[in-house]
Amino acid sequence: MSQRQRADSEGSLGPDDEVMPYSDDETDDELDASSEGEGGEPGEVEPGAPQPPVDTRSNLGWRVKTNDRAYHQRPEFQRKVFLCIKKSKYSGNGIKTYKYNALTFIPLNLFEQFKRAANLYFLALLILQIIPAITTLPWYTTLVPLVLVLSITAIKDLVDDLARHRMDKEINNRKTEVLLDGGFQETKWMDMQVGDVVRLKKNDFVPADILVLSSSNPNSLCYVETAELDGETNLKFKMGLKITDEKLQQENQLADLDAIIESEEPNNRLDKFTGTMLWSGESYPVDLDNMLLRGCKIRNTDTCHGLVIFAGADTKIMRNGGKTRFKRTTIDILMNYMVYSIFALLILVSLGLAIGHGFWYEQIGSRAWYLYDGNDQDSFYRGFLSFWGYIIVLNTMVPISLYVSVEVIRLGQSKFINWDLQMYYAEKDTPAKARTTTLNEQLGQIEYIFSDKTGTLTQNIMAFKKCNIGGKTYEKRFLVSYELYLVLQPVDFSWNMYADPKFEFMDHSLVACIRSKQDHEMLEFFKLLSLCHTVMVEHKEGELVYQAASPDEGALVTAARNFGFVFLNRTQDTITIKEMDHEATYEMLALLDFNSDRKRMSIILKFPDGRIRLYCKGADTVIYERLSSNSLHQETTQTSLDIFANETLRTLCLCYKDISQVEWDEWARKHKAASIATRDRDAALDQVYEQIENDLLLIGATAIEDKLQDGVPETIANLAKADIKIWVLTGDKKETAENIGYSCQLLTDSMKIHYGEDVNEKLRVRQALRRNVAPTFGSKKKPPEPFFTEPGKNALIITGGWLNEILYEKKKKRRRLRLRRLGRRALPTSPGDGQPINDFEKEMRQVDFVDMACECEAVICCRVTPKQKANVVTLVKKYKKAVTLSIGDGANDVNMIKTADIGVGISGQEGMQAVMSSDYAFAQFRYLERLLLVHGRWSYIRMCKFLRYFFFKNFAFTLVHFWFSFYNGFSAQVAYEDWFITLYNVCYSSLPVLLVGLMDQDVNDKLCLKFPKLYLPGQKGALFNFKKFFISLFHGIFTSLIIFYIPYGAFLQTMGQDGEAPSDYQSFAVVTASSLIITVNLQISLETSYWTFVNCFAVLCSMAIYFGIMFDIHSAGIHVIFPSYFTFTGTASNALRQPYLWLTIILTVGISLLPVICIQFLSKTIWPSVGDKVQRNRKKYEMEAEEEKRQPAFQRGGRSRRSGYAFSHSRGYADLISSGRSIRRRPTAQAVLHDSIREVSREGENI
To answer: Cys bridge to 220: 240, 787, 1130, 1231, which one at CB 3.0-4.6 A?
Structure first.
């Protein structure tokens, strides 16, 4: 794979790959305002001339006054809420996620439930049944099921809302200290207000967005853990202003504080804050480095004082959550359309039968004296009443119990996910959790997965694995072979009192060489690691606490510590280390910090003997360009780097250079001049750094492993076999994201990778071709030709800047406005400049991008904002109509999680914001495979089977009334007893199908994982669609025909054993009902794939319940008590003692089921599906699965060249170190260290 050089951003219109793009919170007005004064306006000050002061407060509309709650209630800060009711625009700090309270639960819940068309339909039906003129069924036949459905749904909603109440109460009742009445008082979070001064202590959660005023650390430094925001447990630092640090340390000083903070309005920008502090007539700028965001946790800071700027719903973490979306499954939507279709069919059938009744009455009914009912009504009016009568009679075509049955099945499936021990993470005692019960079957239809990287795919833990020193590689050694995984015992570091017990290294020869002190290059190698870094150290209770700018730096310094070179202390201009058996202090002359353009960092030190040396570490691509021609071991080190890179390890090259005093003096003058430059200071410093970082001598290279979570490569490989595409959306750097892509096998060496500039060019060409063709703005037809015509697999890696560039987002508009005002580019007015002509062209550009991305085997979007993550998910949902799943672990993933059809949160970490917004949660990425391929597939198959059968049994049940109407003058008379109609779906046929919906499985979980192709029918929606619906309809029509006409034929000219004809209406109703119950219960038996005792019991029990209840309600005793409600006295006992009728029932059942048995046999024999084939050979596969041992999916050995550089942080702590602000005064006597030395790393990349 060829190396791509990023174009210099200076003068380039291409976006900077390393910069996080702006979010979409900026309005067009803000974009225009932000560009004003940038050039091109009359009277503009020439470059280089003194700049007039600019009032930057005009756009700062948020004003906060300290220690003055009444100030924020002023009329100018009021906003209209409803009619004339106003309230303060400043939110309180309480949060509310619940929906109901004690007064609103019943009315609101009923209102929400009756928004469902089916519930509203049955309410209208109940009202119709109360009207005597049209009712054909008692009112209780509808009321009982309706009340049951509403009650079960209401109880479920109540339980869910009580859980939200408990969570809100827990958070709102957390305690913190607030400055009130001149002293700090313990106050609940929900009682805090904007402008309050708060005191936070170590390990406290930050309750609101707070401006740091002072802390117990030097210069008011405050260390925070941002696990709630981004899932990272590495520490980040914030600091107070110099003026507040000096004057606001005491309680009385804080109580007397009278300052106003003017800042930007609340927004979701996690990476930006702009404000000004007005105090004592002076203005002090405030930015993100001075802010503690809600959800962070105070670490390594005893006390911290701050001022509440944003509270509650205005905080950035709450603003970043995105809009809560009501999620519905594809089956839900399809089911609603089918119910609407049944409504239409019901109306048409009722209308036809009503017309039939009108004609029948006109021709026959009005002329038969014995049919006169005493009502003088014409045929039209009677037809009208008959229409509503049939609406009532045939209402069971839309089964009210369908919805409650679906909810019960989903609840059961959710419990199975919660109880799955194979998704339980014992290390952190974290089970899987289905946080919603309405989306289970959607898990079986996923086509695209959008995953975060840090904390989701990786553990965010770096481990020092290998190194090359003086051309020789030191690494893990094997006794026999790689395949047998037989490794040596780890190196024993007990000789080193400072060694980290968690550190492991396998090559004993490296320790032996170091301890012998014979190899000078090896000693320099580890001396460089202990000196060339920006790690800060604290002495706390006899321990060393490291604060590293990235996990990489922490891993390297820890490795040096274990091998005998221990970083002990630093001041503003010195570094102290312990070199094996003695301490040495080096004078730090200059620190040339890392940044994304330089890809290296250097330190210039003065040794105790007076020598001056530069140590440098960085990416191989930049180090090799600066090596001296006399540098040794370049080829052997390069070979090792290639091997390291192909093993997906993160690599750095180490080198040094001796500097003479004269050379140093000359360079120091240039450095000083550049460091005080007023314009382009960073560019000037980079130029000076280039002058000293040359003619370097190579020492060696390091290889660090960014640890993936267990099973990530295998999970991704198996999901890919199921035709599920995985996209990685991360805020990390491009190099880091690409490296992880190779580690988890999302990317392979055989793939051709396309970057932002390639993608932009291909889309521009496609757009130009479309313009050259006759425009058809009404057509959105996808161009037939693919974007990648060359053979082979493709992958796309695109940064947030290029994403905005490609999709014409506001970042591009900002740049166009700026460049236009600077006169570097004309206003785009013609199609030739590559800009969209109209909204249709912009939409087509988005369609093209999605089509191109979907042609790729892998897509990685890096340096993207939370808003962009959600936008990418939206594009795929919108233009591919695909079912999507998002998985993440931090607050920066919440928007993406809420946007996708399914949201999954990684739990078990301290950051729980993603989990609280998710639909499903578990502790490890690898559990996603089981969630989709096992639980998702089973849930989908069960739900589809349940729905197909449910529609069938209700059509078979209801349409018997239709055939009966041809023989009763279309009079809306029912074919069954009233109580049978009431209890059919509730008692007689519900239990077997519920158990199928809960427990059925065609193959077991092991085979589901072994054959991912079994997942494909769900993605295609093959098991439940309109075709399957109409098959169920015609099956129901056929069964209803058999159930009606065979007993009807048997009852014609029939004589019983006692000489009486059992051909009365009531006996006929019993026979048809009995035939129906036996048929539908045996039909579900044919559909059942996984038989247990419970299934068998349910089928037999359902039929037994039917006969038991029927004999009871046909008894004389109950008729005596309720004569008007139970009218079939003695019918069952009289009819079912006739052998002839039992033969009729058997014949009816046999003819109904015979075609089904034949079709199932032929389909599984002649046209078997993948599932049928696996099921047929199930025992064989199960035996193979027990015998075979799972081989690791990850294989090493590709030898194509690519850089393994992926140093994961941006700028380090160099500014803090050189300024001395972060350094404690050195104690007179150095504290004695105990055995335990711990390291706390800090991730430098902050969204």
So the answer is: 240
